[in-house]
UniProtKB/TrEMBL annotation:
One of its GO terms (molecular function) is porin activity. GO terms for biological process: monoatomic ion transport. It comes from Brumimicrobium aurantiacum. It is found in: Cell outer membrane. Residues 43-132 form the Polysaccharide export protein N-terminal domain. Keywords: Cell outer membrane, Ion transport, Lipoprotein, Membrane, Palmitate, Polysaccharide transport, Porin, Signal, Sugar transport, Transmembrane, Transmembrane beta strand, Transport. Residues 1-20 form the signal peptide. It comes from the Bacteria. PROSITE patterns: PROKAR_LIPOPROTEIN (PS51257). This is Polysaccharide export protein.
Length: 247
């Protein structure tokens, strides 16, 4: 019995030791606004660029047979009926009457202008609307209604998304809010301190589709500054899972 007790205590100490030696934890790490990586700086020229696996609808006024997920027609309506074009692994979609068309890295405006020029060959003054259905921002942690938020606007701020989640929960630790953003193969992390009175406009950073916001509880310990700026070779959702597991 004594040996069993010693084994259990030793195992608990080992687990505790593993937890406290976690490289993600460092009370001294800074989260001042000056430490933000440049990928989080405000960019007034930002426009969303179409990606692989995006779901796209194309609407032509009065041309239901050429529309996919039309916002104009009554019966050929929208994503509720599963009507969209999926951007494939090569960045292509199949557009009625046009055929295979590469849209990867195009902005919505540039795609609209390009298609309008093509349709003008047989339609007079075509009215076109393009939508990307899966532009999403994820908010996790101590907000009243954590969720994945579909967005239509190009400008979406941190506090806008928190408001969409009905605000912060009572246990939210506003000193250590994290924003994760994937750029190519790397995930960058912004450390936002909303408890400080200065630079509130700078802290209310613009969020982009694919960003993940994590609002920790007040017992949270900040991650090691050396690796909280960039996590190489991962995805935002994988990085979010790592961060959530360290609470």
């Amino acid at each position: 019995m004594k040996k069993l007790f010693l084994f259990v205590m030793t195992s608990l100490l080992m687990l505790t030791s593993c937890r406290t030696s976690n490289l993600f934890i460092d009370k001294k790490a800074s989260n001042s606004i000056e430490d933000l990586d440049s990928v989080f700086y405000n960019n007034n020229d930002y426009e969303y660029h179409i990606r692989k696996d995006d779901k796209i609808t194309i609407s032509l006024w009065g041309q239901d047979e050429l529309s996919v997920g039309s916002t104009y027609g009554i019966y050929n309506s929208n994503e509720v009926y599963g009507k969209w074009l999926m951007v494939d692994a090569n960045g292509n979609i199949e557009i009625p009457k046009i055929g295979t068309f590469n849209v990867e890295k195009m902005t919505i405006i540039s795609l609209k202008d390009t298609l309008k020029e093509r349709y003008e060959e047989w339609i007079k003054n075509p009215v076109i609307d393009i939508k990307v259905l899966n532009r999403e921002i994820t908010v996790l942690g101590e907000v009243i209604n954590p969720q994945v938020i579909n967005i239509d606007k190009e400008r979406n701020t941190l506090l806008d998304m928190v408001a969409r989640c009905k605000g912060f929960d009572a246990y939210a630790n506003l000193k250590y809010i994290k924003v994760l953003r994937q750029v190519n193969e790397d995930v960058y992390v912004a450390n936002i301190n909303l408890e400080e009175k200065e630079n509130h406009l700078m802290k209310n950073i613009n969020l982009y589709p694919g960003d993940v916001v994590i609002v920790p509880s007040k017992k949270y310990k900040e991650f090691d500054r050396r690796i909280s700026t960039i996590i190489p070779f991962t995805t935002t959702l994988t990085a979010a899972a790592i961060f959530m597991g360290a609470f």
